Amino acid sequence: MLRQLSILTVLLLLSGCFGLGGNDNSLSPVPDPSPTTSPSVEPSSSPAPSPSAPHAATAEEAAKAIMTALQQQDLTTLTSYIHPEKGLLFSPYAHIETDIAITFHSGELPTLEDPKAYEWGSFDGSGEPISLSFSDYYKKFIYDQNFAEADAIGHNEVLGQGNTLVNIQDVFQGSTFFDYHFNGFDPEYRGMDWESLILVLEQQDGTWYISAIVHSQWTI
């Protein structure tokens, strides 16, 4: 009898400790914490930044900025002014030969270290092809004089007169151009050694761009 009572007492004690009666204090398994999920990062839909667009308010300001870039061999600034649709045409003489003139679009302009020879046209007089690297062409037919300090600047006026038929306004109708002109260098030539660098500008969506760089000098 005492043994039965002892067993009953033990059972009652166990029931109180572990909640075997199903009361509110019953132990329940603790759930494992849910794994932390890092928020997903959506790829940005924004396009990569494009080269800075020119901010010149007028054609005169654009021409001045471009001439400064040419003087400093700043091809980054020059590239930012290249016409977005027409590109930038180079002509060694004032009569533009549209069938052979080279045009570079933005992103295509060679560096001054590029050794590749391009066919830019034909030398006046000899008719030999002008086969030069961009650097050599730059020295001979772009900035062979300090045109930023020219004797005169003609706005929509060709200042250098020679035997060449200037066809800028025929090729780039409605454009604006600036003729950076030197009257001559050696008095013995009596002005026949004049030179010009002509910047041809066109406006698109309210912004001024350069469409052509034309070198001009006395031709045979």
Structural account:
The protein is of the alpha+beta class and 220 residues long. It has helices spanning 2-18, 59-71, 75-80, 134-142, 168-171, and strands spanning 88-91, 102-104, 117-122, 129-133, 152-155, 176-182, 195-204, 207-217. It has a six-stranded mixed sheet with strand order 2-1-8-7-6-5, with helices on one face. It has a two-stranded antiparallel ribbon with strand order 3-4. Residues 1-50 have low confidence and may be disordered.
Write the layout of secondary structure elements.
Elements (H helix, E strand, L loop, with lengths): L1 H17 L40 H13 L3 H6 L7 E4 L10 E3 L12 E6 L6 E5 H9 L9 E4 L12 H4 L4 E7 L12 E10 L2 E11 L3
Parallel strand pairs: 1-8
Antiparallel strand pairs: 1-2, 3-4, 5-6, 6-7, 7-8
The secondary structure category is alpha+beta
Strand-and-helix sequence, N→C? HHHEEEEHEHEEE
Strand content: 15-25%
Shape: globular
| Spatial strand order of the main sheet | 2-1-8-7-6-5
List keywords for this structure.
single chain, 220 residues, alpha+beta, six-stranded mixed β-sheet, two-stranded antiparallel ribbon, 22% helix
Provide a brief overview of the structure.
By secondary structure, the chain is of the alpha+beta class.
